[in-house]
Amino acid sequence: MEHAFSMIAVMLAAGAVTMAVTPAMIRLLRSHAILDIPNERSSHELPVPRGGGLSVLAVYAAANVALLGLGWVRLDATWLALSIPLLALLALGFFDDRSSLRVSTRLLVQGGAAAWAVWLGDLALPALQFPLLPAVDLGFWGPVFSWLWLVGFTNVFNFMDGINGLAGFQAVLAALALAAFTAAGGDAGFAWLAMAMAGCSLGFLRHNFPRARIFLGDAGSLPLGFFLAFGVLHASCVVPRPQLFVLTLLVVWPFFFDGVFTLLGRVLRRQRLGDAHRDHLYQLLVRAGCSHTGVTAGYAVAMLACAALAVAMGLGSGGRAAAGFYAVVLLSLACAGLILRFHAQRGAIAAREAGVRAVGEALADLRAAARAAQKIGVPAPGDARVAGAEPADRK
């Protein structure tokens, strides 16, 4: 592949610069008290600076300037369709990190960014096809589908950014896969951008995993989620095959599946979708006692497998693509079932242990009360004698 070594060099350079500038960002965020304060839904115990996306996007912007100057990326409609929404979402996320914004404000900006990208980037998906099934001509609904995908996955990525390193690994591996997709499809320009974003995300991981000294915050998760959602659509349009969107979707499959599975579960349980929760599959694992490092490592393995499989299937034959896609779907459902069962079992064990502890504490309190009563001459709890009365057999 032409420029392959140069692309790797760009990724490594972006990673090194991001790793170098992030400590300064940590100090800056602390000095302005932009911190993630733990609450009942948090997976951390101490305040941690949030807004690390500022360093990621700053280095990504510098890489863009260099790539444009070298002529490896063109200032065309695709670049504008991606870059302006990233800037808008960076600003939105930063202000949301400082002081929580209304949901309506967030959706308005996200919707506007997605509409701009679909219109200027010509991202209206013409047709949709699952492997071995007939293609569905989207027609008028093509732009609507693309808009919903951009807004939806941007928020899914934001929701999934909940434990150390999880979002960073998804960004690195998905961006690398998208670079391979677009480069093979003849769009080297987006491949350069994807490699730069992969490098920036990799450099940030040094400070976010396994111990988090800084969080991406909305300033990072919103632009990163949008970048990957844009990349999936763009890669599907570079090589216009109806089923390519579904195959390209596999590069972000762990996040997509967890988000959709959790959403459907809340719908079936008739829970309000807008309420904060800790029902994602990765959160259930953490609540069941698994460590952040272990959960992130498991997801990273799944991300790597899905990204590699997506590239292999997207560039391969239809029969293998069908087998691989449906195998991933079935395996994901099986893993979700195991996670739910594991969480339920650990919850039942924890409930029994809590019950035993409560009984033990109650008995200890009762014994302490009995000893205290004996010291002052008061009958212990449960003693049949009454103070000042003689036993019945002495009368």
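Above is the first protein from milestone M3; the second protein from the same milestone is given next.
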Amino acid sequence: MRVKLTVFVIFLCLAVYAAAQTAEIYGPQQGGEISAPVTYDNTDSTLKLIRRPADQRDAVADVRPPAAQAPNARPAVQTAPDAPPQSDRAAVPPAQHLQSSPSDDKKSARPRDKVRWNKRLSGNFTVYSQPRTQGVPTPNLNLKFETVYQILRKNIQWLVAGRSDVYVYQAKADFLKYEPRARSWSGAMFVPDDNCIVMYDDTKDSKNLISQFTHELTHLFFEDFFNPPAGKAAYAEPPIWLNEGLAVNMEDISANYRGGVWANDLILYNIYPPSPAAAAQKQAPRLQTSSGRVFGSGSALGARDGGGYAGGPRLSDKRAVFKDFRQFIRQDSIDNASAGGWVDDWYFQAYAMVRFLFKPYNAQYPENRLQFEQLLKEFNASRRADSAAVEAALKKAYGYKDIADFETRFYRWLYAMQKVGREKILRENK
């Protein structure tokens, strides 16, 4: 009897140990929500938009495939190597247009191969972490990556691919030293040539780090959907406004499915369609409620002219002027935005357009997931991103007659959504 009991205890201990090791390697298999952010702050009786500190904005960089590989690639914008993005409100800078190494064996010449890496497997990632020489790393980073994976799987399941590689440098200095394509204002980037994500461990702001990772992982899945690493089809550059708009949407819901900074701005900003009358308007009046609280001070926003429109009560004197949709969907529109200094509004418009098509009311699950999935499949089938392809895909997926019909329905949704959101804020602040 004692022998049997001893054998049973030993077997039980081995089973517990094996389970613990499996949990450590594979991480969580169920999704989870990180604590939800507050969308507005009335602690001082004044509505204020939630803004990231200036040194934490524009921290995400995208590295696009070289023009030689993309028949319809956008022309590169000539900027200073470390010039900061021309944005005062966007959470991401313009995409980097960089040439790949001419070597056929790119991986053998990568500077990051000189770094000593600690390799660790989680359920869906192979994470290479640079050993720290000082400080403490962000705790449970692999588990945070797995949580992001589950969030994307919950929202864009048809895009989510298999195992992905992630390289995490210990500090920004190493990130810039060993990643020639990185810029001083970037914190993470998707590298198409290696089909991986590289970033550095921002121990001062783990939420921002996860937000950046979500943005870049969305790009990786999106690009793999159109151009699988092992695929034989000719390279196709997917519509840039869809690519960036979806990445910003996923970034915004990485902490709360109802959205964060971008969703907040979409309610409070006064958004104008492209027209001379809209561009000519100036300061918008502030709104004072019966309780005496004044809204629209804009103290936490960048320096923009005021503006307004008839889509509900104005709670802010800040505005954004969106471009004509037919011009905006062009593949070179982001380069025009960068050259013209309106990259902030470009990302905002891309976010808003994709939000309307995919998750218009930020419910727990995307309301238009089936239509949006069909839209991407139509683009993937045509391998084109011109206006004719956009109109054809929108007609099949959503029933829109043309781009003008899409634009009309968008503004109808936007102004109705803003009216409801602003009136709700007023009721909560009485």
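Note on the second protein: Residues 17-106, 277-310 have pLDDT under 50 and may be disordered.
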